[in-house]
Design brief:
The complex is a heterodimer of chains A (about 220) and B (about 290). Chain A is an all-alpha fold. Chain A is about 85% helix and about 0% strand. Chain A is globular. The radius of gyration of chain B is 25 Å and the shape is globular. In chain B, about 30% of the residues are buried. Classes of the chains: A mainly alpha (about 220), B mainly alpha (about 290).
């Protein structure tokens, strides 16, 4: 019953947001609606996490992995675009499941922006990193076994992150989804996309084995 | 001086959300200008003097970038200024770019003020009760970061002392950071397990968590809350009724000057300079008391 109610609320909330955007802010409705919908689409996972019985161990583990990926972002500040955040999120998802991956990704965005500056881009980063973690968690077994698949996913996640953030740029700069500007933004961001993809591949190929070993060891040592 | 920062977090959150909501999504140039002005003024109030000049340089270049590139991508509008590669560069698109730039910079300035005022402790205080587990995870992660930074400095110093990858080249820098990060991962996960054992030993999850906070909802907070609600509702109602609608395409519309529209401008103007006024008031009172000593 509860599930039905929360499902119904979500089914009603998104159209409500769309309508209020259309009536309140006609000129910038796309920016408003996209912002609200990204926030709303993160909520179900958060609510599930809040409701579920979660042991202290996994709570602390998620916060430690989040802190580590933020630390990675801080450590690599001097090299623009070359960040291990996505790699950490994917590794967390591979070893602790899709939900932990989503939580680590989206919380890393919130927390690292306490350092790098919060803004209207925060929900988009939460959404894209969370989504990357979620997908990695769903295909964790093949990712662990197959190096080629892992590097493909790494490249894909760099591109996906860039493409989602470009949607944000265009909606914010234009108010509407201007396809020429979107293409221009993708082209302008192409060097960064390449850096994202390459850095993800490097980090995942280098890290997934040693970190996976550490995580497996922790899992057996502490019985997770 | 942070008179505004001492206000109760719930009022602060309400205030920032409402100002950002209106300034992000309003298309009327007067409202955008008011948001930019209020944000800039408040930024100047709470910031150190030295950083303002450097920031101004960044914002001006951002302004030019957004404003100038818009006509290159958008060919709507009915007054072409000149043609570039066979595409019209229109007055409307140029002005629309200026308005977008004003909006973006206004929102960035408000976000900056938000980060300065809504520190993470206030954020956690507000959301600790609604989302206890998430906010516990957030606060633990926030506490881990400085500890990890300290530890990673130690690791890095130790590695440098051993002469590992201490060169200046990019590959050395990357490899050095990677070694530090792997060392940090095993250290931090072992540490996390200790934390969780300690939490369990102290009875986490047995009963509801107690918490401590120094925020009290005072009468002045209540008054400010009411003022904010009134000042916010005027622009919201006005925007919903379409009093301040403004469009750039196909032609630039006239700036609305009906009494209702003026009321919206006045209310939002008051809302956006409110924190700066509070800061100024506090500064004057302070000066007055100092002069009496």
């Amino acid at each position: 019953m509860k599930k039905w109610i929360s499902g119904a609320i979500f089914c009603l909330l998104i159209p409500a947001v769309v309508l209020s955007g259309v009536y309140l802010f006609p000129a910038r409705q796309y920016a408003f609606i996209s912002l609200c919908v990204t926030v709303l689409s993160c909520l179900p996972v958060f609510i599930r996490f809040e409701r579920k019985e979660t042991g202290t161990k996994s709570l602390v583990l998620i916060s430690a992995m989040t802190a580590l990926s933020v630390l990675g972002r801080v450590l690599f500040t001097p090299i623009p675009g070359f960040k291990p955040v996505t790699a950490m999120v994917v590794i967390t998802a591979m070893y602790f499941g899709a939900e932990a991956g989503f939580m680590t990704g989206s919380l890393s965005a919130v927390i690292s922006n306490f350092y790098f500056g919060q803004g209207p881009w925060t929900p988009f980063q939460m959404f894209s990193w969370g989504l990357l973690g979620l997908i990695a968690g769903l295909i964790s077994e093949p990712l662990k076994r197959n190096k080629l698949l892992l590097s493909l996913y790494a490249a894909f996640s760099g591109v996906l992150y860039s493409v989602i953030m470009d949607v944000w740029t265009v909606l914010w700069a234009d108010g509407t989804f201007n396809i020429t500007r979107y293409v221009a933004a993708i082209i302008a961001a192409a060097p960064f996309t390449v850096i994202y993809a390459v850095s993800n591949i490097i980090f995942l190929l280098l890290f997934s084995k040693p970190i996976g070993k550490i995580l497996d060891r922790i899992k057996t040592k502490y019985g997770l | 001086m942070k008179a505004f920062g001492n206000i109760h977090p719930s009022v602060l959150m309400m205030y920032f959300l409402s100002v950002m909501l209106v300034s992000m999504f309003a298309s009327n140039p007067i409202i955008q200008a008011e948001a930019l002005f209020g944000g800039a003024l408040f930024c100047l109030c709470i910031q150190k003097r030295g950083t303002a000049l450097r920031d101004a340089g960044f914002y001006i270049s951002l302004f030019l970038m957004v404003a100038v590139t818009n006509p290159l991508f958008s060919h709507n509008g009915k007054t072409p200024l000149f043609f570039l590669n066979g595409n019209p560069v229109t007055l409307e698109a140029l002005l629309c770019g200026v308005s977008i730039a004003v909006m973006v910079i206004g929102v960035l300035l408000w976000c900056k003020c938000y980060s300065e005022i809504m520190t993470s402790d206030k954020f956690l205080y507000l959301f600790g009760r609604i989302i206890p587990k998430l906010s516990l995870v957030l606060s633990m992660a926030l506490r881990f970061i400085p500890a990890y930074i300290r530890q990673s400095r130690r690791v890095s110093r130790a590695q440098k002392a051993m002469g590992l990858y201490s060169g200046k080249s990019i590959s050395d820098r990357v490899r050095n950071r990677m070694r530090v990060l792997t060392a940090m991962i095993s250290w931090s996960l072992e540490n996390a397990m200790d934390v969780s054992a300690s939490m369990k030993a102290r009875g986490y999850g047995q009963k509801k968590r107690t918490d401590f906070s120094i925020f009290r909802f005072q009468r002045s907070d209540c008054a400010l809350f009411a003022v904010c609600i009134v000042l916010l509702s005027v622009p919201l109602v006005g925007m919903a009724a379409g009093v301040t609608d403004f469009t750039y395409y196909p032609g630039i519309s006239r700036i609305e000057t009906s009494p209702a529209a003026v009321a919206v401008y006045a209310a939002f103007g008051a809302l956006s300079v409110l924190p700066s006024v509070l800061e100024a008031k506090e500064a004057i009172i302070w000066k007055y008391y100092v002069s009496k000593i």
